Batch of 2 targets.
Target 1
Amino acid sequence: MGTDHDNPYDLLAEDHDEGQRWAFGTGFTDPLAGIDTSVPDGLDAGALARYSLALGDDALIYSHRLQQWVAGLPELEEETAVANIALDLLGQARMLLARAGGILGQTEDQLAFFREEKEFRNVRLAEHADRDFAELVVRLLMFSAWRLALFEALSSAADPVLAAIAAKGVNELAYHRDYAASWVVRLGDGTDLSHAKTQAALDTLWPLLAELFRPDPDAFAAVDPGGFDAVLDTVFAAAGLDRPTTAALAPDTSGRAGRDGVHTEAMGYILAELQSVARAYPDATW
Amino acid sequence: MVTASSTAYGVAAATPDPEIPMLTIEDLGILRSVDDSPGGGVVVTITPTYSGCPAMREISADVQARLRRAGFERVTVATQLAPPWSTDWITAEGHRKLAEAGIAPPSAAPSRTGPIPVTLGHPASPPCPRCDSPDTRLTAQFSATACKSLHRCDACGEPFEAVKAL
């Protein structure tokens, strides 16, 4: 054990004995290790892979956007909150990419770091760059309210692995949604300036919402729009915010949107940052 | 009959949690089972607290190292997601150790039937683990780890962490 201290880089090795760690989270193991990942008879494995990948991409890209905020938030308490929410979403992304990758014959890292923009299936709301804290909390409210309702429905999905991942995420998403909702109320019902910024954030983000409810032939569950609207209306009423009337961001001329690999300009910049290290050092392990 | 797995259970169960080391993984309800593997060796099944909990890999490595030192050569650590972990899995002993360490233990997890209603404003704040005063308030919904929130006691003035009831 004494020799380890002579070379701290020994401690970076994948496997080391108890008590010799240099930090938590070094080295990665399959997040679905030991779980029966066979696809049940009668299920469309291709659709299951595409849908798991889509939900994993939503979480991966959204998590990256939240990570970019860390060290730039107004208070230390919000730093830990946003970092923890990003971590929860990254955990969901890892399990979902592993689920998809198991069917597609690829690792979660291959899927995260070596696909091109048009192969990412996330909704465009996930890739939006928040311009201020109001946009951060309004976007998180919209995304987490939708994803929570979806994961509640997916908890009884026909694929037991997807159902278990969704059931696992429900508690996390409920907490994210309530965190975002309480901030939307504080800002919307706060000063004239905070109200104006929050309403402006809502008006800016509203066009990205309709895409979440587009029919998806690969989907294993759907969100009831009525229940989703009721959650938002409860928050808007408490916050004194007006439901926007801005038009939805249209799909492209062929009717394709984020789930089809058609993204906004922001997406290329996200991937350039997210994938740069893995692509520069394709043999690296971590 | 003393089987390999029953001895192994005791070794695995005593593994401390890397983030809250005064508690074992058994206290936290992270350890689901230890079984004899059909091909020899033992299979330890653990469950994640949060999807992105970075301690899971550390726990897995610690369990394997402890069992190897105890003479178990072939150890497999498996993950189990369903039923999902909640703070209700923390044992009575876990609650006692948390309070002793100045961390407020969680109240019963909210029951989940039907759509989860949105909560505006802050959830109730637990009694102070140092002076038992109920006169406490939430200062942050997230603390140094995802599983805890941050509070302050207005009676004794001390800040404290609480394990979130989820």
Target 2
Amino acid sequence: MNGLIGKKVGMTSVYNDAGQYIACTVVEALPNVVTQVKNEDTDGYYALQLGYDETKEKNVSNQMIGHFKKAKSAPLRKLSEFRDFEIEKGLGDSVAIEEVFQEGDVVNAVGTTKGKGFQGVVKRHNFRGVNDATHGQHNRLRAPGSIGAASYPAKVIKGMRMAGRTGGNRVKMRNLRVVKILAEKNLMLIKGAIPGHKGSYVIIEK
Amino acid sequence: MQSFLGYKCNVMDLIKYVQSQMSQKQEQPSFKPGDNVAVNYKIVEGSKERIQVFKGDVIQIKGQGLTKSFTVRKMSNGVGVERIFPINSPNIVDIKILKRGKVRRAKLYYLRELVGKKAKIKERTFKK
């Protein structure tokens, strides 16, 4: 699986050749560095570990500094592994955006969704709430309703959907189309929305 | 290579760069809310193409850059019809300005409540 680590820039809309207006997410993916090559002998499988986003040495642990020195790369903030990478790359090589993706490719995008804080069941699990404001209902428009029977089973069954912390999950959006690649600035346009706020890391895999 | 994003954030610069790369520059006449315009719009039906005219008052201009759009309102058989056009759309053949309107607002939503003579926009006259 080929892929790259990038950052979400934001969204805009562009026109395609057919004159259609397409909402796109802009992703910045500077050349990723190969920080580790895993192979059958040492790890039991073949994979490339890519790194992205240079940082200062003081912000990286000593163990990680050693890891980056092996690859002769600057300290990086984000690392990710791609199994069965199809492009031949060695330790310390950089992987550019145009090597991996082409316009029209179908890709998956992995990001961390925006944190929503403690939310009720209507937002969190798409419950409908109480549909009536009248007929005896009072201040429970967005209440969850019954969470189970009474003396049997005398408990709330596990996994009952309730209110709680929402968002901030790793989410993969599948089958998104690459609209355009602007290799000069290492940007790519992907049709549709990608989870996460602006500036958050996104893994684009093909 | 250090990412341009982060604490030294210049998200809008990158978005503007994308827009400048993606735009097929099309010069449109400048108009304002309150102006009466005729938009010639290309409509594709299967393999056929034809041009439709939408004539009415501009009641709002929204957005900037590549995503700028404007709304045209007209009365059609006593029913108000509004249509939103992306200003950079390649499907817009041309925009003709028929009248310049004199209005005191950027968004003329109040026209939706009015009918007949009250919904008429005064024409802007230019002093020589």
